[in-house]
Amino acid sequence: MDKFETLTGIAAPMPLVNIDTDMIIPKGFLKTIKRTGLGVNLFDEMRYDRQGNEIPDFVLNQPQYRDAQILVAGDNFGCGSSREHAPWALADFGIKSIISTSFADIFYNNCFKNGILPIVLPQDAVDVLMKDAEKGSNARMIVDLEAQTVTTSDGESFSFEVDSFKKHCLMNGLDDIGLTMEKKPSIDAFEAKAAQERPWV
Amino acid sequence: MAGKTLYDKIWDAHVAHEADDGTCLLYIDRHLVHEVTSPQAFEGLRMAGRKVHAPDKTIAVPDHNVPTTLDRINGVIENEESRIQVEALDKNAKDFGVHYYPVSDVRQGIVHIVGPEQGWTLPGMTVVCGDSHTATHGAFGALAHGIGTSEVEHVLATQTLIQKKSKNMKVEITGKLKPGVTAKDITLAVIGETGTAGGTGYVIEYCGEAIRDLSMEGRMTVCNMAIEGGARAGLIAPDEKTFAYVNGRPHAPKGAQWEAAMNWWKTLFSDDDAQWDKVVTLKGEEIEPVVTWGTSPEDVLPISALVPSPDSFKGGKVGAAQRALEYMGLEAGTPLNEIKIDTVFIGSCTNGRIEDLREVAKIVDGKKVADGVRAMIVPGSGLVRAQAEEEGLAEIFEKAGFEWRLAGCSMCLAMNPDQLAPGERCASTSNRNFEGRQGYQGRTHLMSPAMAAAAAVTGHLTDVRTFN
User: Could you tell me if A15 lies within 8 Å of chain B, comparing CB atoms?
Assistant: First the structure.
């Protein structure tokens, strides 16, 4: 996984609340057995008409947002399915960070496994960032994971919270499985004890 | 010291390692696997030269995109991509030596119906699956939740999950339900109360007289939709109904092991002095049969209500409601029970169990599906289908004009050929009414099996309490 350091990029505004995983990647695209190549179908039903033509109004079809790396979104982003195809599609498109007032739990976790930083901020901060994102490609937002800040194109800065372990893994591009394998003695010991206490499992 | 919640007790019994910052390795007792969220995980294992750590605790079954038409018996999946996914699961199950119920097996079905049916799901367990409706298994007092594919790979490789503990939320449903009100109405009413993000960061324990009174099937329906309220998991403390359901299932403990298990299971309840971070209480007798009108499960109202006006909401929800009404093709002020439907879907991990089918049969016995309505019943497993046939339910359905299908997820998420056409409106017993969920531009109204059955007969959304 790529290391996440400081990100300076275009932010696209998506003020809609409850953007769900079926909107992010409709199920027609879940039939892949690979993790890559889903970016072209990100937000497919909002982005293209039935004939496959781009819908010009959709934010990521607008020239100034085509290279967006950040989304500023409405409340409860990523609700619905556990499908990791949602962050795969976002990552494949080039989205590296998403800012909202809240995220669905499973989606939030899935982001970190794919090099995407989801940032939770209070409503008033998201309102300021949404306004900044509406300025288009002239406005570059800065996401500094080390310092845990988001800075608007006007230099206004907001601090965010992130779990220290998740931050560490994201900053260093670490593979969870490799890290857990190092704790194998603990897992073995747990299994031995559980086999005594709950042999029916 | 304060007492523990049921969630605290199960959590504490499964922590294999705890780091200084509170990050835990939670040991997983049962890992359920299906064809859509697992291929990349197995591929990851192969690339890294890793094995499945505990194949005996890993159970796989294809369900999401299998066809449910009778010609499936010939073993043909016409959609090439679906076939590749199912074949990948066939191969992965064999190569890695996990328990497997292939499409041809009578025990095949929706993973969340097969797990309990086969006795894989037991009280006090940790259960995960690459599917958000894993919360279903919480009905047994098991800590069960959905995970992403990276986590599927992590569990396959290590039998653990990296987790931090969630907060505790109590949802109490007091008193008795009125006639015509079911488990589905409870779970939708709770989401209507809390919103789809109200449970985010929490594990919910459902309790109270109305929950105790539910069958195991009903409890599974309630827990199934915990995720729709944003919660990681939903739980119900096990009781005599739970033990009676589990006893004798193929993978349930037997003999002395049963006794030992019962000794522990009987300790699985929240202590009187347990600490709750959030409490929600609903009066059972005030819950009405409900339907959804919009494109989020929180867009829920009693069937006796009118389609709401977007102006009645606040903040970002105003725009979302406007968009939802436009998508759903509805006018504010329309009585919900006058909305005409084109399709009825009865099935899914929410409502594809035998009790759901019995409810439907009671309503449609001797009646006919309305002209112009396409109605299908998709049993949750091959065994549910067999039982419904044995009880004579299938005959009632077919006489009434329902399509009687083979087991699978089907039109709940429309990954297989069972889909709505653009603009079609469906009375559905499934769990999500998102845009496009049941087919591109399809319109979904969520409701109980009894309400969906009544709608099938009248051709419009119908109050089951006045249906005759």
Answer: yes
